[in-house]
Write a structure and sequence with these properties.
alpha+beta, Neuraminidase, 13 helices, 40 strands, 34% strand
Length: 679
């Protein structure tokens, strides 16, 4: 019987291997995307969101699934008809709240874990975008938009059909949207009463500020005190031009009895975000950056003693930047996520001896951590991905052992043939060791020669870690027959703050030499076809491509730049978050910055362009505005360089809509085949 079983397993493995194929662009939208996980207060259940995509309909649909942690049993809890988001358990675990647009606008709904039914909780005009239960079960905290400014046609009613804007300060547009004259505000309301909406208290009444912060802030930026008497939230209380110039967000405390607000982090002039209490409310922790105006500073974890009203930096001697954290159930430890050597791992801070130890190892990224309460044997729920595997959920024990909890994408992955991912340490021109990932095509044969792509990372301070991207997917590129070289050049996190900081006022300097060092070193291999090399990238990676186009000394046969900065002066004059532009380069009109702009702006090297280039840019990208791509394409066309412009009128800095994303991949690979394919 055992022999028959072993033979059956062997046959299944053999058949699966035989059926494997290289990844195709369409596979990116066959993967289901996991996120939003929450653990029930009794530690028995894990709920999470699963989003699947309908390419023909050009949209995704989300459902919520539940796993019984003791048995591993899994089932759908909230079907796709509710399209749920923002999962959150009530403190007693009897209700699971979520946001759904099923009633016609985004409102809070509940699933009754006992009675197994759904109910609509809120009916608030305009809908809501977040909610949280108070720990006592008496109140709700909800987030909604509040219109606080007048449109031009309201100021000038004699012109009721005008869509003009009258602007007197910066931040009139941000990332991918113009101001809609409204602000994110937080409200506290009674829970479980029919007229609850009438009892709502605006915590920022009359204030033209956003809480949570725009555009990426969410429920992680707010919390109740454990006794439900106070609300803590993240907010940058600056307006217009001052908002655009500063990163100074703070942690605010709102007392629900006195209705008074105070700033807990006023002494710090950088980012302060994501407040979270320990269980008894004696300590409040949050993420904090020290330097004003620097969005890529080291992210510290500050812990405030609420009685003494003093905080300490528990990560003072930790060289890495913390992306997220969570309290242990007994508050003796804090679990943290941080990037180290181009992977994202879980670390544990101990209050007992003030030490930090690395819990997990391996070539992967952990992207979130959720604490499991009331467990006899402590463990975490964590989401994990790698270049070869999309996000999946794991149980992580306190000895670092990982156990998969769901297999949502395993069947699809079993049909795909992945390439080898290799870690290399490459010497830079100034003698440093640079971690570089090299991704090989499936069935790689070292006796053959392969076209090779230099991937230029954006950010400019985002690490080339073990991410599974749905646009810049390295395994997809490798599956089309390309070797991919992905270096962690200067300016990327995970190698200490000095390495991260070095890119400031030096965009076209050492970082560009690092990119060239990577492609030059890998090109020494006999399997790299030096006559079929390309450079690709987006955002700062797009800037890098433009800079290399004028400085590559004929290394490359083609370039692809997506939403890249072409002219540093015109970019400075049209971007929105000026703190970023000022910290990295400064105003171009100041004498001390003129040489920096002259030396590092790609447009100053256009006379050297001689290589085919694909330019991609999006209408709603206000971080790197459309004119940057138009200028680059205009220059290439007038120089007679083979070039193409791919334009998306309905996308921002990224490409999110399924059909747009697949068109992007189609044009991208067509261009590479045209210029790097075998002749």
């Amino acid at each position: 019987m055992k022999t028959l079983y072993a033979f059956t397993i062997l046959m299944l493995v053999t058949l699966t291997a035989a059926a494997q194929k290289p990844m195709e662009p369409a596979d990116l939208f066959r993967f289901q995307r996991i996120g939003g996980q929450q653990v029930s207060p009794n530690g028995e259940y894990l709920v999470y969101l699963v989003t699947s995509y309908d390419v023909e309909a050009n949209k995704g649909k989300t459902r919520a699934e539940i796993i019984t942690l003791k048995t591993g049993e899994k089932q759908i809890l909230i079907p796709e008809e509710y399209n749920p988001s923002e999962l959150c358990f009530r403190a007693d675990g009897k209700k699971l709240g979520f946001i759904s647009g099923k009633s016609g606008s985004d409102q809070m709904w509940e699933y009754d874990m006992i009675e197994k039914g759904f109910s609509n909780v809120t009916d608030i005009e305009g809908g809501i975008h977040l909610f949280r239960y108070d720990p006592m079960g008496m109140k709700l905290l909800v987030g909604r938009r509040v219109k606080m400014e007048k449109e031009a046609k309201e100021v000038y009613p004699q012109f009721p059909k005008t869509e003009a804007r009258v602007i007197d300060g910066l931040m009139y547009r941000h990332w991918n949207a113009w101001s809609d004259y409204s602000y994110n505000h937080l409200f506290v309301m009674e829970y479980g009463k029919d007229d609850a909406a009438g009892s709502m208290i605006d915590l920022l009444e009359g204030e033209k500020f956003h809480a949570p912060t725009m555009p990426f802030g969410g429920a992680d930026e707010v919390c109740f005190s454990p006794d439900g008497s106070k609300v803590y939230y993240t907010c940058k209380k600056l307006y217009g031009t001052q908002f655009a110039l500063s990163t100074n967000t703070d942690i605010y405390e709102y007392d629900l009895t006195s209705k008074k607000t105070r700033n807990l982090s006023e002494a710090n002039k950088g980012y302060d975000k994501a407040p979270a209490f320990n269980k008894d409310g004696s300590k409040l922790a949050w993420l904090s950056m020290e330097r004003a105006g620097y969005e890529a500073d080291k992210n510290r974890v500050l812990v405030m003693d609420m009685k003494k009203e003093k905080w300490e930096d528990i990560t003072e001697n930790f060289i890495h930047s913390v992306d997220a954290f969570a309290w242990s159930p007994d508050a003796t430890e804090i679990y943290m996520l941080a990037t180290i050597d181009a992977t994202e791992q879980i670390f544990i801070y101990s209050f007992k001896d003030k030490s930090i130890r690395q819990l997990t190892q391996g070539v992967h990224n952990f992207t979130s951590i959720t604490v499991v309460p009331r467990s006899k044997t402590p463990f975490l729920i964590a989401s994990k991905m790698s270049m070869s595997h999309p996000v999946a959920l794991y149980k992580v024990a306190m000895d670092g052992k990982e156990t998969p909890l769901e297999t949502t994408n395993d069947a699809l992955l079993a049909t795909l043939k992945m390439g080898k991912v290799e870690k290399r340490m490459i010497k830079t021109t100034d003698g440093k060791d640079m971690l570089t990932w090299v991704i090989y095509p499936p069935d790689f044969d070292p006796k053959k020669k392969y076209p090779t792509l230099l991937y230029c990372q954006g950010g400019p301070q985002s690490p080339v870690s073990q991410f599974f991207s749905y646009r810049w997917n390295f395994q997809l590129m490798a599956s089309q027959g390309y070797i991919v070289v992905a270096p962690n050049r200067r300016g990327l996190q995970g190698f200490g703050q000095e390495w991260n900081d070095q890119i400031g006022h030096d965009y076209g300097g050492q970082a560009m030499q690092d990119l060239l060092s990577a492609i030059d070193e890998v090109s020494k291999e006999p399997f790299v076809d030096k006559d079929r090399r390309g450079a690709v990238g987006a955002s700062f990676g797009g800037y890098s491509v433009y800079w290399l186009a004028g400085n590559h000394n004929n290394r490359f046969k083609t370039f692809i730049s997506h939403c890249g900065m072409f002219n540093m002066e015109s970019w400075y004059g049209s971007t929105e978050e000026m703190f970023f532009a000022n910290y990295d380069n400064g105003p171009y009109w100041k004498e001390e910055n003129k040489e920096n702009y002259k030396k590092h702006s790609p447009h100053n090297y256009v006379a050297n362009w001689n290589t085919p280039i694909l330019v991609i840019h999006n209408e709603k990208d206000y971080r790197v505005p459309l004119s940057e791509g138009l200028q680059a394409f205009n220059a290439a066309q007038q120089l007679g360089i083979p070039s193409k412009f791919l334009y998306f009128p309905d996308e921002g800095h990224w490409v999110n809509k399924p059909q747009n994303a697949l068109l992007w991949q189609t044009v991208y690979f067509e261009w590479l085949e045209q210029w790097l394919g075998e002749k």
